[in-house]
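Dear colleagues,

As part of the handover before I leave the project, I'm documenting each prediction I ran so the next person doesn't have to rerun anything. This entry is a single chain, and its sequence is reproduced below.
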Amino acid sequence: MTQRAAGRFVIFAAPRTGSNLLCGLLNAHPDILCHHGLFNPGGVHRARDRRGAFGSVAERDNDPLTFLDRVWNSNRDARAIGFKINLGENPDAVEILLNDRSVRKLLLRRRNRLRTYVSEKIATRTGVWESYDPSPDAALPAIRVAADDLLRHVDRNATWYAGLEAKLLAAGQDWLDADYEALADPHQIARILAFLGVEGRASLAPTCHKRGPVNLGVVVTNLDELADALAGTPLSEDLAGKDLRDLRSPLLTS
């Protein structure tokens, strides 16, 4: 009996938009193998429950197409296999993935742009980009947010997503939009699973935890000044916008 090849997918995301959380949730599904940042500049980040290697960072960067072939053919037991790739990572791999119609594309966004910026600043300052143990707010560094730097960050992310959409539209390809803030919503998870061609018949256990604070005032030292600078702009709504709660229990998908 010929075994059906696993469906392929990629999660396109900007940093600090919940891609590690989504990768962990998807990998908890028995029919999905979801790696993390396989094209991360610092290393080839496989799914945490998988051993082995697809090749070195140098081999990956010198020949991303051969590297991707190894990824797609690495596990025949899965119904769907994929990984995430972030803004700023291997542009050749991005082009290969965008042009490959056999790869299903998910575009993951974090609607709260201020929290995205603050989270990236914290990760850059601390060097902690993945958090698999809950971290208290007291352990986080103080951040001063300059409005002009925030606006540049927002523009950078928006430009990248718009570029992805433009290329997919020009090629007549579909994609699925997903929101970080809705990753605890069973309806969004069910929509993602359906897009990947798998059934929502399992509970998905989160593997990583939120790094940012519930209250921005815990880390942003100039919150009042920032509120004045953002008054009357769409970003002002992000100051009080609700964030995703820290997921600590499995999500039911059926």
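Residues 78 and 165 are 28 Å apart (CA to CA). The longest helix spans residues 147-170.

All the best with the project,
I.
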